[in-house]
Amino acid sequence: MHPTKSKFPRLYVPDFLNQGREVVLSTTQAHYVLHVMRKKQGEGVLLFNGKEGEWEGELTVCSPKRTVVVCKQLRRPQKPESDIWLLFAPLKKDPSEFLMEKATELGLSEAYPVVTEYAETKSFSLAKAEAHTIEAAEQCERLTVPKIHPLQPLKDVLVAWPEDRILYVCVERAEVPPLLQALDLSKKVAFLVGPEGGLSEKDLALLEGQAFVRFVSLGPLILRAETAGVVALSSILLSLCVVRSSLM
User: Fold this and answer.
1) Are residues 115 and 12 in the same domain?
2) How would residue 150 be classed by pLDDT, with cut points 50, 70 and 90?
3) How many DSSP H helices and E strands does the chain contain?
4) Which residues make Cβ contacts (< 8 Å) with residue 197, sequence separation at least 6?
5) Domain-terminating residue out of 33, 55, 76
6) 220: pLDDT strictly greater than 90
7) Range of the domain at 17
8) What is the spatial distance between Cα 123 and Cα 109, in angstroms, rounded to a whole number?
9) How far apart are CA 196 and CA 223, in angstroms?
């Protein structure tokens, strides 16, 4: 009898996964499994890589220099997940961590940090953002990890924008429709949330010239940037759940 799933440490690995495959854990992963979770040789670990599903593995080597997990059986096959993009101005450390964690839990597929005129900071740590999304994906049991793009100017992202994806720009104090009213679920979607100071006139002028842009409201209150991102992603997630329920 296998232990319940909650007793298995769950790790994201870049390795190809199939039955009998040996996966060498990173130093950080080995420390977590052996010293935090206190797992021993012969005990179970769950592995996923975003491509071959989730595998139950067994610890076969537990040494200070090398910790190995062998894939034993497929627990969950890979399935399609949501295709939602989020564009956001770089935030300070704590708000950025919060946004990456919650966005991962809400099904974000790709994140684009973009430079806007009033951005709080002009820097963005790609490595730290990836670490937070991996940890969140491990905890919430999704089978993929969001792709995080390097920081780019907003105009550069717009130039390369795919024509089949609508960009919903969340703005404040404007006569625009509510997000839930404007959402077109027949199209691919993305959201843009500005910094604490909002989008500038220059930013808005750049966006207004794009055929794929739709300006929307998240309600009458002025939200923090990280809160706005969570609200936008929650809206699309709830809308998709309603649609799926109506088809059942």
Assistant:
1) no
2) very high
3) 7, 12
4) 118, 120
5) 76
6) no
7) 5-76
8) 22
9) 8
